[in-house]
Please model this.
Amino acid sequence: MSQELICVGAIAGAFGVKGEVRLKSYTTNPTDIENYAPFQTQDGTMEFDIVLTGQIKKALTARMTGIITKEDADALKGTELYVPKSRLPQLPDDEYYYSDLVGITVQDTGGTVLGSVRSVQNHGATDLLEISVPNATATVLLPFTKQCVPTVDMAQRIIVADPPEGLF
Model:
């Protein structure tokens, strides 16, 4: 039985020379990542337990099973860490896991289909929905705010958008 896997972090490289890693956490509270262990790679070929050892600028430091040397840590740089979605907490009604939004149909307030969510991105200011537009190769980035996205209907898998003029 296959479970949906969610990426909760990534190994950013070695920290020091004794096998510790720099760990990038994708959880709301970065140190919560430790609560979701053990992790696995997306293909399931590797599994890791974790003990956080500290926090540095834009990353955590940790010891992970199977990583003994700096070379081991460097070899795993960029490895994404996944957990089954069932291990993550339930969210309030107005919050969503990015992965749940991918593939949802986006329509304007009049019901015209604008496209579907390709990904959710965040470059610091706000979340952005990357929308694949029918019959177009380029995508559109729509701010994921209450003003631009007044309705998310997870049951119907529809997002109602009120995009800024000229965006689509």
